[in-house]
Amino acid sequence: MNTLVFNSNTEAIYVASRALFLAYNASNVMGMGAFQAQDNKLESEVFDNVIHKRDYPGRSETPDLTNCRLYADYVFGRMMKLVINVNNSTLEFSDDKPRLDYQSWGSKYKSYDKLFKAAMKELNIKNIEPVPTIPLS
Fold it and tell me: Residues 65, 51: contact at Cβ < 8 Å?
């Protein structure tokens, strides 16, 4: 699991939102997603779709964005299969390589880390290094 720590929950959410938007733009419509495919969506629309699960009728709960699991399955018809865990100012995401048969965004961003680093670069946000835990003897 990869972990990025930011100065605030707001920064973490900005990075999560941009990473979802970059993945959406780099993804292809696949399978049954063709029935919901919509192009040229704004970042705010992509983020809203993910947090409210708009591609799945009847599932529109609003998560507590300080502590939640963001799951982008199909977003406007594009299969993304991207999970981001938010815990206050921390984002956690997989350290596996994206599977191109499920995560076509992986053809542009060869790893989850590269996707998140691209989002941070676009936003000019840097993560802070977590303070290492020193065992008490």
Answer: yes
